[in-house]
């Protein structure tokens, strides 16, 4: 569910930083980091590291592969829901 939440946020926002994802999903740093790492390894996320007011800031965006996989997942869920009505 966490990865679905991450991808959901990134589908409606061009970029989202680590702290925003952490707050919206109510996760610890470690739990969020492990899921982000898995999504990045799968090629579903791109990462942008920068400094804002001398503080490090890491932001994430969905890649084209990530967007495609997310859409396919939603379509599969919709089929399941429709078939159980």
Please, could you describe this protein's structure?
The chain has helices at 2-12, 18-25, 29-41, 64-83; strands at 16-17, 45-52, 55-62. It has 85 residues and is an alpha+beta fold. It has a three-stranded antiparallel β-sheet. Strand 2 and strand 3 form a beta hairpin. The relative contact order is 0.18. The mean pLDDT is 95.
Provide the fold topology.
Blueprint (H helix, E strand, L loop, with lengths): L1 H11 L3 E2 H8 L3 H13 L3 E8 L2 E8 L1 H20 L2
- Write down the CATH topology: Arc Repressor Mutant, subunit A
Mean pLDDT: 95
Question: What is the 3D shape?
Answer: elongated
| Beta-strand residue percentage | 15-25%
Order of helices and strands: HEHHEEH
What's the architecture, going by CATH? Orthogonal Bundle
How far is the N terminus from the C terminus? 23 Å
Tally the structural domains.
Answer: 1
Q: Summarize the biggest pleated sheet.
A: 3 strands, antiparallel
Helix content: 55-70%
Report the radius of gyration as a whole number of Å.
Answer: 14 Å
Q: What is the CATH class? A: Mainly Alpha
CATH H level, superfamily name: Winged helix-like DNA-binding domain superfamily/Winged helix DNA-binding domain
Regions with little confidence, pLDDT below 50 for 5+ residues: none
Based on secondary structure, the structural category is alpha+beta
Quickly count the helices: 4
The strands making up the biggest β-sheet line up spatially as 1-3-2
Strand elements, count: 3
């Amino acid at each position: 569910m966490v990865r679905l939440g991450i991808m959901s946020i990134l589908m409606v926002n061009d970029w989202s930083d680590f702290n925003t994802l952490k707050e919206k999903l109510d996760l610890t740093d470690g739990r969020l980091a492990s899921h982000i790492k898995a999504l990045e390894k799968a090629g579903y996320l791109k990462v942008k590291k920068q400094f804002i007011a001398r503080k490090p800031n890491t932001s994430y965006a969905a890649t084209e592969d990530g967007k495609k996989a997310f859409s396919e997942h939603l379509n599969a869920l919709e089929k399941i829901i429709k078939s159980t009505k």
